[in-house]
Amino acid sequence: MISPLLHDDPHTVGPFRILARLGAGGMGTVYLAHSAGGRTVAVKTLHTRLAADTTLRTRFRLEADAARVIGARHGAVVVDADPQAPTPWLATEYVLGPPLDAAVEAGGPLAEPAVRMLGASLAAGLEQLHRSEVVHRDLKPSNVLVTAQGPRIIDFGIARAFGDEHLTNVGNAVGTPAFMSPEQAAGLEHAAAGDVFALAGVLVFAATGVGPFGGGAPTDLLYRVRYGEPDLSGVPEPLRPLLVRCLAKDPAHRPSTTELRTALGGGEDAPADRGGFADLLPDAVLREIARRSDEVWREPPHRLPPPVPAEAPRPEAAPAGISRRRLLSVAGGALLGGGLLGGGGWALFAGSGGTGGGGTKKDAVDRPKPPTQLWSNALWCPASGGEVMQVGRNLVMRAGIVLCGINAESGKSTWQASIEETWRSATDGTRVYALRGYREKASLAVCEVSQTTGYLGKPLAELSAFAGKEQFNQLLCVVDGIAYLVARAASGKSWYLVAADLKSGKERWRSPVEGPQAQGFPPALCGAVIGSRVVLCGSPSTDSHFILLSSHDKKHGRKQWEMSETFAGATPPSRLVADDHNVYLGAENLTARRLSDGGLEWMVGNGRDVGDSAGEERRYGAPLVQDGVVYCTEADRGLIAVDALSGTLNWQEKGLSGRKNSRDVTPAVGERYAYCADDKGLRAVDLRARKAVWTYEATPLVLTADPKGGRLYVRQEKRTLALPLA
């Protein structure tokens, strides 16, 4: 993805003019660039601090050589390279297409014909590489780009020649655990047969959305790769025997790349242009290819200015020519969204400690003040599930044991529905849905709630295979006319994740899940549709310090991965906090779990001094992810902002002392302030200064933002308030 250059990124690399960033990692950075003749290229550089490492410099040279070997048909054309430069660099054509993992995320698993053509082309590329006695050693979905003409293999960063022992660290596994060969996982020689094993894993992922050995911790993956059996249950039956051979633990039992290419239908007579590949791709993938093509022709984003020193005065307004989005990114990730204020009164922060003090009259004049309350309603907030939901231009929220419709302008109640349990209702943003009362009829039914009377209408879907009289049946969400439920079967005690089509009224699919594990909890704490997945957060058992996360294919319901997450000492989440890449959780640490396989993407917290209160309760509060930034409170140190992709700490609240953060209240973020709850009320943190500037005296339980309506909502135990968004 194209992103702005940082202030210290180079203006040129070799003969190329640098335009934007495409990605960065521990080894180097990849840039979008133009040649003198206007050709668009991708330029990969090795970090300057690593250039003195002769092994890494040699590996960089081999990467350029391997990219040349694989050629234009199966890789990215090498335009130029200088591995001997003070900062080594490699320029290749800019390939217009997403990585395979992003393509599957956008359009779901590929159909069998597409998997066959994908595999035949990749096998042909590896065959060409192996003929030159080079092995890739890190073939995985993110290193395969999907274009309209066919797949391209990239990133030969750990490729090497056959028998090149001086670049092999024997006894240590080098590569990506989920797609390693058993011999590579053991730190042994990875030859051409190892690339065949990895290619089979890539094809399993393309066909199912998950690798053959699932996800989880690297050590667990390495063990399963070496000793476990691959899961091919979701792979089309005609492909399984071939992939079983490719995934044999013994390299001698695997087919060659030539055999594999032929078996997949990629014989010598296969068309050279692979023009039929685009016809086999989902529409969502073709749209993503088109979007990336269009993105290249747009004006590149402006280079970000250097960060403002802490002692420098804050500018009163954005300089001309700088967009709001760019300014906010400079301010440390304060991006579009809403925040909340409490009601009852307010008190200004003053002094460096932020807890009171004198200050000059000019300071008092310059300090911002909380806005005036728009409306207030005596709506009791439940212990969980008290979020304010947008339905059209109005609001829906729980109020005690009923569901209420609220006029967003006046705050007055417009209807009430007698739906006691929070887990038995949901909204798609336009309508409100609920499960029919479990005390009524035997069958399970999904109904629409009238936004005039609050009554349940005729069932949109009636599922006689499930027990309607089960209290813990739950309606997770409704997306694109499909209701996703967790329900108990009418016969027996089995529980299922169910997809019901509200247009036809029929069940689409079901997938087995765990039933209720703790008294008073439904089977799942929450669930949501994210891209091509239905992600479920299961209830903890009474004696457990873990919650169970799982991902299911949205189209067929097949479980893609499942993993447990430590959640000791924390209130379990009532909603999923996720973006297109990760699920975020705050407890002993702030963690990001990949949606692709459930593996740990990053973790913040180990070794950090978070204050004296850390041992009393959870160290990290309930997080919020907004426009690429994760916000949460860190014990009683204050608010932190973390880059969602890398886990890098963007900034930390300054000057907070003498306050006890409410860890279970998710913060809210507006254009100017972030809002956090603590024992003194609701404080507003200035996103430029990274300091609290005022406090609104209240005891919030839930904060919700409505950026489109320009309102902030704060729910207290017995009252809900609305204020204008600052």
Which terms summarize this structure?
globular, Transferase(Phosphotransferase), domain 1, 726 residues, six-stranded antiparallel β-sheet, Thrombin, subunit H, 11 helices, 17% helix, alpha+beta, Phosphorylase Kinase, domain 1
Explain what you see.
- This protein is α+β, with helices and mostly antiparallel strands and 726 residues long.
- The chain has four domains: 12-18 and 27-94, Phosphorylase Kinase, domain 1; 108-281, Transferase(Phosphotransferase) domain 1 (Transferase(Phosphotransferase), domain 1, Orthogonal Bundle), CATH 1.10.510; 322-382 and 600-726, Thrombin, subunit H; 388-533, Lipocalin.
- Helix content is 17%, strand content 31%.
- It is built from eleven helices and 42 strands.
- The strands form eleven sheets. It has a six-stranded antiparallel sheet with strand order 1-2-3-4-6-5, covered by helices on one side. A five-stranded antiparallel sheet has the order 11-39-38-37-36, with no helix packed on it.
- Strand 32 and strand 33 form a beta hairpin.
- Helix 3 (112-131) runs antiparallel to helix 5.
- It is globular, with a radius of gyration of 28 Å.
- Mean pLDDT is 82; it is low at 159-173, 269-274 and 310-365.
